[in-house]
Inverse folding.
């Protein structure tokens, strides 16, 4: 086995693990927080089914990456830096840092022009999510205090709505972020059925561990936000997040950081809730938490840029 193959295989395995441990924890985080009483394997089976159906159908129709890699061809040979990116991701994930898997992984495969497009689309996603969330929750808080208990007669309806919203979100997220792993695989119809099955087995196994450990380190970011452990709040967050991802998926096929969208959404929501229920208090009480999340996100961007410079001068 050549060194190039080793780099490719290691990069693929680590990218698959990092995507499940980092990005999917953010996507499924509110679902995990608000369903602690549900045994982990039931959640695993449902979300694994969505994963298999989503990727299986995409493969059957010609592209498991949903077109996200149209501008990023498979390299002729793999190098050490192709394995370095997901390795950094795994390390940062263990520290609980919400790094953008898209930016960090795809930066070593992309031209500078494509990387600029990825960064621009991600920045727009962050800003749009933050503004929409602030405006939406500013209105919601006038009619609903999410911390108030859900009436007993409505609990079952909210629970069903949340599982449906999470499945919708999980489907949309996969259409964006599965490209971060598929970037190591043959493009389009060149991906064989055997490779697809191996791909799915690895992802389903990683998803099982995610639910078994209740989200891991990244889950702390979700749990620290107001009301995310409540089923009603989780449902609204997941549905809004899914609609934003759907918009950007239809907008163009350039990959983007769903992590940035997620952090922007929580940022705007947290500001709106704080301003509504803490009238007269200074924003400095919530500002440090929001700045901390943003700075953690910037860490991944800085590392991506450093990797790009290293690759350019290798």
């Amino acid at each position: 086995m050549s060194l190039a193959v080793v780099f490719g295989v290691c990069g693929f395995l680590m990218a698959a693990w990092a995507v499940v441990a980092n990005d999917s924890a953010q996507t499924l985080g509110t679902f995990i927080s608000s369903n602690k009483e549900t045994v982990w394997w039931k959640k695993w089976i449902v979300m694994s089914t969505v994963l298999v159906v989503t990727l299986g159908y995409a493969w059957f129709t010609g592209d498991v990456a949903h077109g996200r890699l149209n501008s990023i061809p498979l390299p002729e040979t793999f190098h050490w830096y192709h394995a370095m990116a997901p390795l950094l991701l795994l390390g940062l994930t263990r520290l609980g840092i919400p790094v953008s898997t898209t930016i960090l992984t795809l930066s070593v495969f992309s031209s500078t022009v494509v990387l600029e497009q990825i960064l621009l689309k991600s920045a727009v996603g962050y800003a749009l999510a933050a503004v929409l969330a602030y405006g939406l929750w500013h209105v919601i808080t006038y009619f609903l205090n999410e911390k108030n208990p859900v009436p007993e007669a409505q609990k079952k309806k909210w629970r069903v709505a949340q599982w449906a919203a999470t499945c919708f979100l999980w489907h949309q997220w996969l259409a964006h972020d599965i490209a971060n792993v598929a970037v190591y695989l043959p493009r389009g119809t060149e991906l064989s059925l055997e490779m697809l099955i191996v791909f799915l087995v690895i992802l389903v196994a990683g998803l099982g561990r995610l639910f078994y450990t209740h989200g891991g380190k990244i889950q702390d970011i979700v749990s620290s936000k107001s009301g995310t452990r409540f089923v009603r709040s989780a449902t609204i967050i997941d549905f809004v997040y899914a609609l934003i991802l759907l918009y950007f998926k239809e907008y163009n096929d350039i990959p983007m950081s769903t992590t940035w969208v997620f952090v922007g959404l929580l940022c705007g929501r947290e500001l709106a809730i704080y301003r509504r229920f803490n009238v007269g208090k200074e924003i400095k009480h919530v500002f440090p938490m929001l700045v901390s999340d943003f700075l953690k996100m910037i860490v991944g961007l800085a590392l991506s840029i450093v990797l790009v410079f290293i690759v350019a001068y290798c």
Observations:
- Residues 3-312 form one domain.
- The CA atoms of residues 232 and 291 lie 26 Å apart.
- The chain has a mean pLDDT of 82.
- DSSP finds 13 helices and no strands in the chain.
